[in-house]
Fold:
Amino acid sequence: ITEVCGAKRVGYFGPAQFYIALKLIAAAQSGFPVRIESIKNELPLPRFMALKNDSEVRYGTPAELHGVKFQVPHATLEKNSYKRTDEGEKQEPKSPPMSPICSPPASPSTYQRIPLSYGYGKSRSGLEQQHGAPYEIRHSTHQQDGPSSGNYGAKPALSCSTLNRSLSAEREQPDSSAHYSDDPWRITEEQRDYYINQFRSLQPDLNSFISGSVAKNFFTKSKLPIPELSHIWELSDVDCDGALTLPEFCAAFHLVVARKNGYQLPETLPETLLPEYLQAASLKPMRDCALFDSYSESLPGGQPTRDFSRTEKASAEEVPDNSALLQDGKKEDKQALKVSTALKMIPKEFQHLTVKTAAQESNALKARPRSRSYSSTSIEDAMKKGEEPPTPPPRPQKSHSRASSLDLNKIFQQNTQAVRSGWLPPPPPALPPRPSVSQTEQVSEVELHPQMNRPPSQAEENSSAKKEVVLAQPPSKPARRKLRTETQGLETPELSPTINVTSSLPAVKPHLPVQKQSTKQKRAIQTAIRKNKEANAVLARLNSELQQQLKEVHKERIALETQLEQLRPVTVL
Amino acid sequence: VLVSLICSPPQNYPLYIRSVPTENELKFHYTVHTSLDVVDEKISAMGKALVDQRELYLGLLYPTEDYKVYGYVTNSKVKFVMVVDSSNTALRDNEIRSMFRKLHNSYTDIMCNPFYNPGDRIHSRAFDNMVNSMMMQVC
Structure:
């Protein structure tokens, strides 16, 4: 096979060679002779059951769930690993086969995204020169961790599995040159959903604009310096009208996220962030994977690369959490929200896709209460607490990659923690206990049937939308208090069970009459209202404190100015 | 040689100044600053006809030794001043007009940016690129 596919001649397995090799393997397994002509037949996907890859083992169970398509992911995963090692050989001597599976990051949701994320996951890992090895090792070790590990590492393989599962057939085509373009400027599906939700929080009508001042306030919260924000605005406001449409907003948000993760801002708007592109993308999430060439967005050094890819991976791992850890009661709300996101996502013919995208959405939603702001630092902080492994779409950093923002980050963390912990005292933990595992299992069952997803997801959508509103409000006001942080751990579980129960219950029993669903909704709404009130109280307190601080600072300033005046040499003659 | 300057009202301090090539810059800075007086004189002479689009372009302010100074003022009294080499005879009036128009458009784009506070110095990369390309065309 090696000879036939040309690898022997060329000396390595390039994408073309690899695909041909896999096709030949499939042919051989199906009993066809190993010849070039064989690949023209309609072959089933090659089976690699005998391969002892960890990824293999992990994909074993989920593979059954999704049938035939999974064999392709195995193939593609192998492709990943081989290709990775191939590239890795050129650039990095050591690249354990595991890591490439982790590196295809982020959202599996739509086909056009997947090749891209796969592509830039790979190229990114390829580019990691000095940081590559530790990165890989970390990934490997992370893979060994159980789901309880509070970092994304635990899920990369799983995420990759589900990722690749959804990718599956599309990837077979050898037009993978576009895949391997390193592309941090593409917006993944879950990122897009997150951006869209943020947009909604600022401006309910998705077709109209966000005005400049509103956008300014919003992006100022990201704590980026004003000149950079100014530049981001220039890049993203393509029609220069002082307002952001939805695609412009997504582009701006994406640039902010990228900047926070260490990427230098480009001089011109990347192709994939152009509004036309984003418009088309949002309307047609299902696209062929043969896509744009990579444009010259060079990554900065290895560190930001690693951060970004890690965060990318993190979002990817959210997905497997839901699908693979269905029995894990930790992610109940995500699964429930998964259902709701099934509605939002357009792909209909791929069950696993909807499951996954729903998972991402739920993860994003879940992450939002944790983070309390869309700044990456607070999210990262939440991550550090180890509450939940998955990370929200705004890619958080594990560590502060820029020393200049270190203090800010710390302050911000404390603030956000303060906000989070400040939440807890007011509300009595009147939330229902965490839903049982059985519920989640049922939820997962439900999710696997998209038709049944519809009614519960609709109920879901309402409650989750409300949750979004509730949860989006606290993030908008970073706190400056320094409170204990242990409370924040409590808070998110409290919130998530709330979301869980309210959302999972309707999802669990799709056959229930609508009245029951509406009572659940009412309960959800009431809880949301209560949370809202609490948030308001906390924020009001915060506001008064900040006002006080402001007054003091003003006084100081006046005192200093008078001093200055006195000290100034008298010039009047 | 091309120098451009944008000054904001009311104190007329410069928001943006760029000259190509960069030697002898101070002389040109001085020139544009002095030409601001001429601009002020022109707009005060116009009286109530300030809103007219034609008045935005002030034309040749005054020719000095070996270069010409052109002025342009927006409705919000933001002044654009351009100094070009007299040896550059290829530059016609309408070309200068178009350059001012481009400057004005870019300036409004900057204004649309909510992160830009009017009165700040202009640090926009897009604006710089535009000015650079314009200047490259001339020189």
User: Anything to note?
Assistant: DSSP finds 23 helices and two strands in chain A.
